[in-house]
Amino acid sequence: MSIEAVVFDLGGTLIEYTGPYDNWPALETPGLQAAYDFLCGQGGQLPDFAVFRDTGFAILPGKWETAVSGGPNLRLVDFLGDILHTCCGANGIQPAWLVEAAELYQTALCAQAHPLPGAQEILTNLKSAGYKLGLLSNTMFTGAAHINDLQRFALDGYFDAMLFSADAGKWKPQPTPYLHVLAELGVDPANAVFIGDAPEHDIVGAHAAGMRAVLIRASQRFHLPDWLTPDATIENLWELTAVLADWS
After folding, report:
1. Helix (H, G, I), strand (E, B), or coil: what is residue 142?
2. Per the confidence metrics, is the pTM higher than 0.85?
3. Considering only CA atoms, which of 127, 161, 182, 132 is closest in space to residue 6?
4. What is the distance between the alpha carbons of residues 139 and 110, in angstroms, rounded to a whole number?
């Protein structure tokens, strides 16, 4: 089968969001701080920031796992609301404040982002070669926040279809978001490749959807289980060109 489309993950694949933090959920700290400062400024009766932060750290992994397992959606505004109800019963926090706090959270996290080496070059080369390009991101942020990042790093304008999980309520490794993007591209899964950095989300999901899957190891943040075998593994984005040439 010839390859007609390449679909990319975003965080850790095209743009890195970790900033100075080595692991997740610790990397969420600047966002939590920005939201906390805003809510305090509105007169919210909040506990010390350490309590607010650690409450978020405690509940986020479970909510993320629920979402990726096909359960209820995970949106940033709801996550902040859950922190408040858990640690202080909300204490008069207004819904509009949560929306603004979520915007500030996103802004703080995106401020520490940078594109991975070769991101613009690989997108330019693939587009010039005639591939259809897609973007599929597991994120509790709004798609608008990530589109701003793509524009900021000159990575916008390349994609023929994009899906952000919190907006759509569809999460990797479920096959549904992959098939959604492929339907928009008009490409059969057998003629498409997915590239991402999270083996148990990106690779498992791509295979479940019937796609080939490339694991990028630009960071060592995720462990590759012995039972999981990507169709190809690369260390940087430039290596993707050779992989696609071999498959063509």
Report:
1. coil
2. yes
3. 132
4. 12
